[in-house]
């Protein structure tokens, strides 16, 4: 015979599974602008940045390398480097993408923390800022994983049907007048 505890356990598993599916969103990587501008040679890449809804420099999804691995992987963050070379004063703007390689410290993962100052890039010292973002495609506003009202309504209907079915199963002998 099905006990109330078993029915509640089954119902809890079904509801939890549905909730996980309800709020889970597949991640295929982030879209990022990819370009380089030296001394303002690529105006489309320089600041102030005007996308104007062009896909010419937008990589979708943006792919990046991981430390210690061959190949490219879907990126988790967009990056922008803007500054000037210490030795020549040439300006540089680089837009691209990267992903966390899984090391334990933030100083070896450029996407974990934006920072400004001096850093080594392309075998030269640059004075400027390295910024990263992962909150949206192309670092603009992105849709968040939110519940669809129809899915929420379906969840409530599923819960109600499960409760009614459980009640009927647990009380079927009493309801049918059998075994009294």
Output the number of helix runs. 3
Q: Which strand order does the major sheet show?
A: 2-7-6-9-8
What is the rounded distance between the termini? Answer: 16 Å
Taking all Cα atoms into account, the compactness measure Rg is: 27 Å
Helix/sheet category: alpha+beta
- Largest sheet geometry: 5 strands, antiparallel
The tally of beta strands, per DSSP, is 9
Summarize the helix and strand pattern as letters.
HEEEEEEEEEHH
Shape: elongated
Mean pLDDT: 74
Strand content is 25-35%
**Considering DSSP H and I runs of 4 or more, what fraction of the residues is helical?**
25-40%
Low-confidence segments:
19-27, 140-152
Put the structure in a nutshell.
This is Protein sleepless. The chain is an alpha+beta fold and 180 residues long.
Structure in words:
The protein is α+β, with helices and mostly antiparallel strands and 180 residues long. It has a domain at 32-144. It is 26% helix and 26% strand. It has three helices and nine strands. It has helices spanning 4-23, 149-170, 172-176; strands at residues 32-33, 35-38, 58-59, 63-64, 73-74, 77-85, 91-98, 115-121, 124-133. The strands form three sheets. Strands 2-7-6-9-8 form a five-stranded antiparallel β-sheet, with no helix packed on it. The chain has a two-stranded antiparallel sheet with strand order 1-3. Strands 4-5 form a two-stranded antiparallel sheet. Strand 4 (63-64) and strand 5 (73-74) form a beta hairpin. Helix 1 (4-23) runs antiparallel to helix 2 (149-170).
């Amino acid at each position: 015979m099905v006990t109330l505890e078993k029915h509640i356990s089954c119902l809890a598993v079904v509801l939890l599974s549905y909730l996980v599916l309800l709020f889970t969103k597949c991640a295929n990587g982030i879209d990022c602008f990819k370009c380089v501008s030296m001394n303002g040679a690529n105006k489309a890449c320089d600041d102030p940045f005007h996308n104007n809804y062009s896909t010419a420099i937008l990589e979708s999804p943006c792919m990046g390398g991981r430390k210690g691995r061959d190949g490219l992987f879907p990126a988790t963050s967009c990056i922008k480097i803007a500054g000037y070379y210490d030795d020549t004063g040439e300006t540089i703007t680089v837009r691209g993408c990267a992903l966390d390689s899984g090391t334990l410290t933030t100083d070896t993962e450029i996407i974990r923390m934006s920072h400004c100052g001096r850093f080594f890039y392309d075998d030269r010292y640059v004075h400027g800022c390295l910024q990263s973002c992962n909150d949206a495609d192309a670092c603009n506003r992105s849709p968040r994983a939110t519940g669809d009202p129809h899915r929420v309504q379906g969840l409530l209907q599923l819960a109600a049907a499960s409760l009614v079915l459980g009640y009927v199963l647990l009380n079927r002998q009493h309801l049918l007048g059998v075994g009294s």
